[in-house]
Design goal:
The protein is mainly beta and about 600 residues long. The protein contains no helices and 48 strands. Helices cover about 0% and strands about 45% of the residues.
Length: about 600
């Protein structure tokens, strides 16, 4: 196979970049971000997501009058629908579920999705006006994914039964009863992702996944003839392909090999040039053709910075907003004269490999002195730096040497990092915290992955002279605790630990304390929507705890709970929100992560992508 290279004639000043495709066309990895045309359009809806990482695309109805968002809030996969005319969003789901792969029915009257929760598994529809949910496909012992509802009521989906994968069609149930049987349309669909039938019903388009790369292909159902339209694509978490209304082109969001952003693609089936569009220098997570000829892009808007705010409350002031890098998860130097944090470029394509540890010096008044500088830059994911009480060492989480563990390094760079734990890949170890005497580190982790540990609190003893682990990490007993343990922070006197716990039963987040040596945890405050990516933070006097929550909608804010009385109060305000609080050594200032994770669904003008 041969791919034609770009030439100067492929560009028009102020016009659209077109990539020439060969007879079996491949989207070139060399089509990098600088060649993406930036487009603008009308914002149909904007949704602030409640989770730091899992921001899923908004999907507009065929008419473009409503937009549905799936939000990973407290493990519930809630659905919110926005009315485009009013801009008002309304949560339309009332019960926990594993809702994902959200689409619309062809007439726009219902939302369609698969629920992965074990007692609800199957294809469901939801009436956005009433919130009523109905299961329309029960696959029995099989597992299904990527459902599509056709105009005649048939549901197509991938069905996984043991080692066999097939693309199947579930006929409409009698009197809308649950469909349980399926006819196989394509029996060898292994490696398929997001299959969708063409408007004329003769073909199926899908992504064929192999490792970290994917290809875009079309198969004629009657003959099995297959054409590969694109290769070497990288995909986002919510993967989908859409046909244009006349069936002459496919739309998807993907990234080439050299890209740092996901962009929108329109790939014609006749071999004419593909179009590649970006929006505002941000990731495009989904592309949806609308019935009126427009195309809607689901665009990821995220910005994070470290901010400072008085511990008594107020709106944080960003101190790391300058430059190209973002920052989050702050920590304080023991003398209060510097802040540490994660620096990174927030791109969903490369996010896991760009984490480094940055530092910002502060003057005696707490004002930033100088610019952000890199304190630790190792290959892989480094985050959660914690200074030892004497200020000589940094403990941090890293994936160096194929690990998922806690490491230690001298601040002066005199030695290479030393690995303190040996859980290995998949442990999902969190950031560490020092005991006040500098002899112990506490953290949360799944531990050795093969143990099936859902998340526990650990401690590891450290020699303060050599910086070496004295013994293997030990799991802190949490007697009678039913859930996932996340994060760990020592109290100012070192006697207790604070951590987040997420319930197995309903996903609620609770702030707990427990003796540092272990025992029955004490629940301090519980709420529906918590931020589990750091840990609760103690006040300097140990009488209260700071934590983040968002009351199920809008941006996160930092709250304080009085341990003795359980009384709570909101500490931070502001449109960006705040989370991951860290208290200064003198107890007067909070360093927080200021962040916004939002999806904008933007409708381009008809014809702006050549849509037919």
């Amino acid at each position: 196979m041969k791919t034609m290279m770009r030439s100067p004639s492929n560009r028009r000043r102020g016009g659209r970049f077109r990539l020439v495709l060969a007879a079996v066309p491949l989207l070139m990895a060399a089509a990098c971000g600088g060649n993406v045309e930036e487009v603008s359009g009308v914002v149909l809806a904007r949704h602030v997501h409640t989770d730091l990482y899992d921001a899923y695309p908004g999907i507009p109805s065929p008419a473009g009058d409503r937009v549905v968002f799936a939000d990973y809030a407290a493990d519930k996969r809630s659905l919110t629908v926005y009315d485009v005319a009013t801009g008002v969003g309304r949560a339309v789901t009332r019960t926990p579920g594993g809702r994902t792969r959200v689409t619309w029915s062809p007439d726009g009257s219902r939302i369609v999705y698969v629920d992965r929760q074990s007692d609800r598994h199957g294809v469901w529809t939801l009436d956005p006006a009433t919130g009523r949910e109905s299961r329309i496909v029960d696959p029995g012992d099989a597992r299904i994914d990527y459902p599509r509802l056709l105009p005649d009521g048939t549901v197509t989906a991938l069905r996984y039964a043991g080692a066999d994968t097939a693309w199947v069609a579930y006929a409409p149930g009698v009197d809308r009863a649950i469909s349980v049987s399926a006819s196989v349309v394509v029996d060898r669909a292994g490696g398929w992702v997001a299959p969708v039938r063409s408007p004329d019903g003769r073909s199926v388009a899908y992504l064929r996944s192999a490792g970290r790369r994917a290809a875009l292909a079309v198969t004629e159902i009657a003959t099995g003839e297959t054409r590969t339209l694109a290769a070497d694509l990288r995909l986002g978490w919510d993967r989908r392909v859409e046909w244009s209304s006349a069936g002459g082109a496919l739309h998807l969001a993907a990234a080439g090999i050299a890209d740092s952003l996901f962009v929108a693609w329109r790939v014609p089936l006749d071999g004419s040039p593909a179009e590649r569009l970006g929006h505002d220098g941000r990731d495009v997570l989904a592309v949806t053709p609308l019935a009126d000829g427009r195309v809607a892009l689901s665009v990821y808007h995220t910005r994070t910075a470290v901010g400072l705010v008085p511990a008594t409350g107020g709106e944080p002031t960003a101190v790391t907003a300058g430059g190209a890098a973002s920052a989050f998860l702050p920590s304080w130097h023991p003398d209060g004269r510097a802040l540490g944090f994660i620096t990174f470029s927030w791109r969903r394509v490369r996010m896991p490999i760009d984490f480094d540890l940055g530092i910002l010096d502060l003057d005696a008044g707490g004002v930033p002195a100088g610019s952000v500088r890199t304190l630790l830059s190792e290959e892989g994911e480094d985050y959660g730096a914690a200074w030892s009480p004497d200020g000589r060492r940094l403990a941090f989480h890293s994936h160096m040497e194929q690990s998922d563990d806690i490491w230690l390094v001298p601040v002066d760079g005199s030695e290479r990092p030393t690995r303190l734990t040996h859980f290995g890949p998949g442990a999902d170890t969190g950031e560490p915290d020092w005991s006040p005497d500098g002899r112990t580190l506490a953290f949360s982790s799944h531990g050795p992955p093969l143990e099936g540990n859902p998340g526990s609190v650990y401690s590891v003893a450290v020699d303060p002279v050599t910086g070496r682990a004295i013994a293997d990490p030990v799991r802190v007993p949490l007697d009678g605790f039913p859930g996932y343990a996340m994060g760990a922070r020592f109290s100012p006197d070192g006697e207790r630990l604070a951590f987040y716990g997420r319930s197995f039963e309903d996903g609620r987040v609770t702030v707990y304390t427990v003796p540092a040596a272990g025992g029955p945890p004490t629940a301090i405050v519980s709420f529906v929507n918590g931020e589990p990516y750091s840990a609760p933070e103690w006040s300097a006097d140990g009488a209260s705890l700071f934590y983040s929550r968002n009351d199920a909608s809008g941006p996160f804010q930092v709250w304080r709970v009085d341990i003795a009385s359980g009384a709570t109060e909101q500490v931070t305000t502001g449109a960006l929100g705040a989370l991951q609080p860290s208290v200064s050594p003198d107890g007067r200032t909070l360093a927080v992560t200021m962040r916004e994770a939002a999806i904008e669904v933007v409708a381009l003008a008809a014809g702006s992508t050549g849509a037919n």
